[in-house]
Amino acid sequence: ASRPRKLAVHACENPRAMAGAAAPTRVSGLPPGPSEPPVVQAARYTWRFPSFTADAHRRFGASYTVRLPGLPPTVITSDRALIKHLVVGDPLTRRHANDILEPALGPGSVMLLEPAAHLTRRRLLLPLFHGERVAGYAELTRTLVDAEMDEWDAGEPVRVHDRARRLMLAVIQSAVLGSSDAGFARELGRLLDTFASPVANFGLFAPALSRRSRWNVIAEPFHREADRLDALIDRVVAAARADPALGSRTDVLALLLAARDEDGRGLSDGDLRDELKTLLIAGHETTATAIAWAADLLAHDPAAARRVRAGDRAYVSAAAKEILRLRTITPVSTARTLLEPAPCGDRLQLPAGTVVLTDAHTLHHDPELWPDPASLRPERFIGGSPASYSYLPFGGGAHRCLGAALATLELEIALKAIVDRFDLEPVRPPERPRRRGATLVPAGGATVRVHPRRA
Question: pTM to 2 decimals?
Answer without folding.
Answer: 0.88
